[in-house]
Amino acid sequence: MLLLLSGALLAGCGPARSVFKKDTPRAAYERRLDKEDLDKTPEGRQWRAAGAAALTAPVSISLPYRHAGVFATDKARAVGLRFTAKQGQSLRIALDDRDAAALPLYAELFREGGPAPVLLHAAEPGAAGFRFDVEEAGTYVLRLQPGLRSGGRYSLSLGIGPTLAFPVAGPKAKAGSFWGAHRDGGARRRRGGRPR
Question: For the chain, which terminal residue's Cβ has fewer other Cβ atoms within 10 angstroms, N or C?
């Protein structure tokens, strides 16, 4: 009896983690499809398969990258883009879904490694893009997928830059005096390198 009770208790504890975990926009959309039983239709299965294929067989690109495309409504599609990034770089992903009302576009960034890609960031549909600071060098995949029966034109640009900008910003970013100018009331002079 005690063994049966503890087994039931452990079985009940498994899904509790997902109750407190917030779904990504694409996962929430996928759950809505499940509730409407659209996942059991050929279109729903094609939509899921397209999303999975974008992660298992992405197109390799080099950064920076720009692309304009169209998602047609006649068939479920997804785009997977694989690229490498180094630690300390900042990825800048800019999306322009020109037909935003007809094209809820789900953009997700994954890191490859291990048995399955690890989700790092999921943008809200309609977002103009996002920035992601790379903490670990490796291979990354950006997946773009419109909603089921959705289509339209979009443009994408992926750029890289340093995580940290120049440490001094604004008007104080430049040297405050000229070569040979006196500093501290004449106590020292500016001669390049170190003050004297």
Answer: N
